[in-house]
Amino acid sequence: MDVRTARQQLFQLENIRTDPQSRHVLWEQGNTWAEQFTQLVEVTEQADQYYCALIDQAASDDDRRTRSEQRFRAARYEEDWNKGFSEKLIQGRTRLQAARLRNQLMLTELEQHQNLFQQYWSDRRVVLCQIALEHMEYRRALGRLSNADWQASWAALLGAYRHQNQVYEQTSGKPLPGNFFSPRLAWYHRLRAIQKEIRQKRRNSRVDQELLRQHAIIIDQQIAQLSPARSFGIFIGGMAAVVAAIVLFAMVSNIARNTTTNPPSANAHAATPTAKTIAAIVQPAPGAPDADTLNAQGVALLTQGRYDEALTLFTQASAADPNKHLPHTNSGFCLYELGRRAEAIAEWRTAIQLFDAGQDAHAGLGMALFQAGDREGGLREYQRAIELGGNYLDADWMRRERQWSNRAIVDSQPLRDALHQ
Question: Is residue 25 part of a domain?
Answer without folding.
Answer: yes
